[in-house]
Design goal:
The complex is a heterodimer of chains A (333) and B (71). Chain A has helices at 33-41, 43-51, 59-81, 86-100, 113-116, 120-133, 208-212, 218-231, 261-284, 303-306, 313-320, and strands at residues 30-31, 54-56, 140-141, 151-158, 179-190, 193-202, 235-244, 251-258, 321-323. With 333 residues, chain A is of the alpha+beta class. Chain A has one domain. In chain A, strands 1, 3, 4, 5, 6, 7 and 8 form a seven-stranded mixed beta sheet that branches. The radius of gyration of chain A is 21 Å and the shape is globular. Chains A and B meet through helix 4, helix 6, strand 4, helix 8 and strand 7 of A and helix 1, helix 2, helix 3 and strand 1 of B.
Chain lengths: 333, 71
């Protein structure tokens, strides 16, 4: 067994996050639910997103809207958990949001509906209405053993195994365990139980059909495990706190998704097999298409690309997508 | 989008949104309180979980090191 120090997982002097890949390879050792979801769905989807960094041109609107919405609600929860009265917390939260979104560029009014609804006005309105809607919330922010409210919790924990021996050489002897990373918006007590709460924004109708998808969901399972690891307490599952954006204003609903212990254990067992498979793809530098996933969730963003001849795909990728900084699970918010 | 609401008015009036007063923001909040959708759904009662969950036994196999950071 080769012995070597672990890779440094902390930001460097410039505040840049370290790479989630083993040096000089595309073998990813630090995983979050986003990258794991891409790889599980389709290796080629993962390759285009995670290795190449291709993003649809309109995606930045969704990311920015969701990020600002979550950040504002987390701030409000923190103010309230620290004892601030409701109205003062709301005023300070809205003030923060107005400043944070000073450079927010509204989508084109003729963009598709799911994009067009993500305006700055609708963002501020959604935050105010959410706070009003849950004024007498049964879900209360959990106070951790250190006295701090359980909001804005970034987590990282390492597994007791890492990328396999087959890829380890004398020249590349780093013995790096896999890391699971992510960010919990909030942990709440509901009744006598603990739940992770995760905020979702959507233009879809938020009925039972919307919430059922989360009963078999990679992110929600990982968040349940992470909540239990971070808090050393049994977390029952995730409350999906959804806002539906509409022209007439936002509507809200919540869904519960539970995870039993045996399902969590099975997920961890499955993960070990998945990670080994992903490592094989990286070692071979070959990312096969899963053509049974192309029409899921309204259609894969790369569906048209994969329909092109292999030798011309890069031309269409370069014209239809932007290549941005690669997604990095080790990047802190 | 509503064109004459206090939020839009504020954006039009101020060059720097940081100059907004608490009264400006309260006016926006009060306006939105009045105009919330009356049909917004109530908080659900908690359904029963499918099985009791305790990860005590799982923890040692899941994590040997935990790092928690706060912003």
């Amino acid at each position: 067994m080769l012995e070597a120090p672990l890779l440094d997982e902390q930001p460097n002097e410039d505040g840049e996050a370290p790479s989630p890949f083993l040096p000089g390879t595309t073998i990813q050792y630090a995983w979050d639910s986003t990258s794991l979801g891409w790889a599980k769905t389709c290796p080629r989807l993962y390759y285009y997103n995670m290795i190449c960094g291709y993003r649809p041109k309109e995606e930045s609107v969704h990311l920015r809207f969701g990020r600002e919405y979550q950040a504002a609600l987390e701030l409000f929860d923190r103010f309230r958990a620290e004892g601030m009265d409701h109205t003062s917390a709301q005023v300070r939260t809205v003030r923060y949001l107005l400043k944070a979104t000073a450079d927010y560029v509204d989508p084109h009014p003729e963009a598709k509906r799911s994009v067009m609804l993500k305006t700055k006005h609708n963002l501020v309105q959604a935050v105010i209405h959410h706070i009003e809607h849950y004024r007498d919330d049964k879900a209360q922010t959990h106070i951790m053993a250190n006295g701090q409210p359980a909001v804005e919790l970034s987590f990282r924990f390492q597994l007791d195994y890492g990328p396999g021996e087959a890829t380890r050489t004398q020249e590349n002897p780093i013995l790096q365990p896999y890391l699971l990373c992510g960010h919990l918006d909030r942990v709440v007590t509901f009744g006598d139980d603990l739940f992770v709460m995760d905020h979702k924004t959507t233009a879809s109708t938020i009925g039972s059909y919307y919430f059922e998808r989360y009963n078999q969901d990679n992110q929600m399972t990982l968040y349940t495990i992470a909540g239990q690891v971070v808090l050393h307490s049994p977390v029952k599952g995730v409350i999906v706190d959804a806002v539906q954006l509409m022209v007439k204003g936002p509507a809200f609903d919540r869904g519960f998704t539970f995870r039993s212990e045996d399902r969590l254990e099975e997920w961890m067992d499955d993960l070990r097999v998945h990670l080994r498979t992903f490592e094989d793809y990286a070692a071979a530098d070959y990312w096969p298409q899963n053509d049974t996933a192309c029409d899921k969730f309204g259609g894969c963003r790369f569906r048209e690309i994969c329909g092109r001849a292999p030798n011309v795909r890069h031309h269409f990728l370069d014209s239809d997508f932007v290549q941005e900084e690669r997604w990095n699970p080790l990047k802190t918010r | 989008m509503i064109q004459d609401d206090p939020l839009t008015e504020l954006w039009l009036r101020l060059d720097d949104i940081g100059d907004a007063t608490d009264d400006d923001i309260l006016t926006i909040i009060q306006y939105e309180r009045k105009h919330r959708l009356s049909g917004a759904k109530a908080v659900k009662d908690k359904p029963e979980p499918e099985a009791p969950t305790s990860l005590r036994e799982l923890l040692p196999t899941v994590a040997s090191k935990v790092i928690i950071r706060r912003r």
